[in-house]
Amino acid sequence: MAEFEPAYERLLRAEGGYVNDPTDPGGETYAGISRRSFPQWPGWPLVEALKRDPDFPQVLGRDPQVQLQVRIFYEREFWAPLRGPELPSQRTAEFLLQMAVNLGARRAVRIFQRSCNLLNDQERLFSDLAVDGLIGPKTLGAVSRIVAAGWEEPLLQLLAIFQGERYIALVERDPALRRFLRGWLSRIEDGLTARRDRRSGPGDRESTLSPGPA
């Protein structure tokens, strides 16, 4: 099964540190956590207190309480609802996590379910999934069958296409967002170029914006 720690480390490398760009749709953001989307995050009072530190914002990365709150946030708000520990592939789990963080969990799961259905020619692998944005036993079973059939790479490619399509729609609707497009696309590229020998667990080693919530 997929593990949270490597997925979390990869996510943090992509999301970066503290940003407060008034033109960014996410507004004030730390480690990918948008204050506009998640104003009740317990880490914000800690961030506010550390703004008085002369080494702000670098000090945030060294503060254990801030880092703990970041980890708790991603594990509770994204990894657990995505049922990350039950996903059959580390690589797919990591891609789905970054997509959920950047597109919203419900939107990302709907894309995930649509992609699974598209690969399910004549429903040979499973009965087509309801595209409801919720991961349950049927979605977990579907992705397990897709990975077992050797179709993980096409699945990830479909996820990337849908994620890129979402970013294009955002930029076409608001041209001021063009300055963020390359950064958003780099997250997709990072997911696709992740080590292909990363897999679900120690026993299987063959392969492996914050535009706001849905």
Q: What are the defining features of this structure?
A:
214 residues; mainly alpha; Chitosanase, subunit A, domain 1; three-stranded antiparallel β-sheet; 3 strands
In summary, what is this structure?
This protein has helices at 4-15, 43-50, 64-79, 90-103, 105-118, 137-148, 152-173, 178-192, and strands spanning 18-19, 29-30, 33-34. With 214 residues, it is mainly α.
What does this entry look like structurally?
- This protein has a three-stranded antiparallel β-sheet with strand order 1-2-3, with no helix packed on it.
- The chain is 53% helix and 3% strand.
- The C terminus is likely disordered.
- Helix 4 runs parallel beside helix 7.
- The chain has eight helices and three strands; from the N terminus they run H-E-E-E-H-H-H-H-H-H-H.
- The protein has a single domain, classed as Chitosanase, subunit A, domain 1 (Up-down Bundle), CATH 1.20.141.
- The longest helix has 22 residues.
- With 214 residues, the chain is mostly helical.
- The chain is globular and about 60 Å long.
Give me the secondary-structure topology.
Blueprint: H1 4-15, E1 18-19, E2 29-30, E3 33-34, H2 43-50, H3 64-79, H4 90-103, H5 105-118, H6 137-148, H7 152-173, H8 178-192
